[in-house]
Amino acid sequence: MNRKTLVLPAVVGLLAPVLVACGGSDSGSDSDAIVVGTTDGFIASKDAPAPVDPAYAYDVGTWNILRQTVQTLMVQPRGDGEPVPEAAESCSFSDAGNERYSCELRKDLKFSNGDPVTAEDVKYSIDRARAIKADSGVFALLSTIDTVETKGDREVIFHLNTADATFPYKLSTPVAGIVNPDDYDKGKLRDGFDIDGSGPYTLDAQEEDGKLTKAVFTKNPHYKGALEVKNDKVELRSFADADAMGDALEKGDIDLMTRTMNPQQIQELSTGSNSDIDLVDMPGLEIRYLAFNTDDPSVKSKAVRQAMAQLVNRSELVTEVYGSQAEPLYSLVPASITGHTNAFFNAYGDPNVSKARDTLTAADITTPVKLTLYYTTDHYGAATKDEFDVLKKQLNDSGLFDVTTKGVPWETFRPAEKEGEYEVYGMGWFPDFPDADNYLAPFLDADNFLGSPYANNEIRNTLIPQSRREADRIAAVESLSDIQDLVAKDVPVLPLWQGKQYIAARDGVTGAAYALNSSSTLQLWELGRGVSG
């Protein structure tokens, strides 16, 4: 009997992280906990001493820790769609121009230690993140806030500096998480892995040598919100790689595994013979792309970047490395998101060496152009090396480039990228919220999270603000399309592919189909034990 593969229907929808292996044994686990495996890793280092502070965290892994523990005013609903009130009882724009947003907190809201949550705590938390301006760039999600006002203990009013129809989504992200002022200093980040919030769980973070080895989430008895918590305890356990995680699932040491499985493993799970394991296949909004330091002499000329865009064969890349688990992407905005266009295909068509050569010749670029493509060895899965080997071959086979590749651990890779040490480097993105704005502004606006020197005034000053004025996102399509066309013309980034996402769970675990939403938010509260089929 084949393993059961559950395929979820398409739905509309960050940067991914690195938990470090603690092995495949269940020793030390709470017997009543649902045990979830991941290859994500969390490291408190000199460069990133506060990985789970809401004012700093900006990757899918740390956000998945925070979403279990720190409450936000809004939350994305179970089946995706527009955000709904969470810590808030109600929220809405209170003006016609989408520049004033008001929320009223739920009655008797409490932090996990029993302290009341007030409107002043919300203001403190959001003003703190805006003031600290952590170098992760996450504060930019709050850039349209001018001031935060409170009225009484329960009403919070956000006065925006420009119209922003996406603001409710931004209030659903962990940077807008409500923290207790007694535990979080206003002017500095909170180092380590301690978290105090009002979310559905409390966290027992077990660490060793600056690495989180186990995260135990226990149901918060004081929690009040929109989420239905279907278990009392979940343990998130980290593995060095997908193979070790898969072995633990096979042996029953863990109940469920999530990102990141490798392509071969997913194929085996979908066609294997273990009827005790279900593979859940669902649409995803993860994208991968190359980013350029446009100030670096090797790629400062737009012609070099355009020639690369002309040469990269996305279909070949996907077929050779990821198979049916990904599809070519010709824009920063993935398919299924309102506003998506195939801007790069429209600009460059199929891969063409002759056109790429003409582009370089017209700009007086001497060939072959020497470049190093940097990628992270331990952040996006084992297939990343294969992906960059294919890219290297495609570029070098043209005779126009002399490319080498270099793999770097994420702990070193991310700080070096932000300091501008790499001319070309591979990155991934999981959306903060499922809107085209979140695939464009984080890369192109001021204070972008890449620290990219690329600046297009039309995009920043006209098109992004214009698109945010439209509460009906269909009405924003023209502005969003213009942004994508300019990106294809200037090539500050080069989109490659978008991927699916998967969960594998043992029989007896319920809720696995809802444990991830399309934005790769881990929803541990959906998991339970029962009869599955």
UniProtKB/TrEMBL annotation:
Compartments where found: Cell envelope
Keyword Zinc-finger: no
Domain (Solute-binding protein family) ranges: 82-448
First and last residue of the signal peptide: 1-21
Gene3D superfamilies xref list: Dipeptide-binding Protein, Domain 1 (3.90.76.10), Dipeptide-binding Protein, Domain 3 (3.10.105.10), Periplasmic binding protein-like II (3.40.190.10)
Keyword Kinase (UniProt): no
A Pfam family matched in the record: SBP_bac_5
InterPro entries, A to Z: Peptide/Ni-bd, SBP_5, SBP_5_dom
Taxonomy, superkingdom: Bacteria
Keyword entries, A-Z: Signal, Transport
Family (UniProt): Belongs to the bacterial solute-binding protein 5 family.
Protein name, as recorded: ABC transporter substrate-binding protein
Classification of source organism: Bacteria, Bacillati, Actinomycetota, Actinomycetes, Kitasatosporales
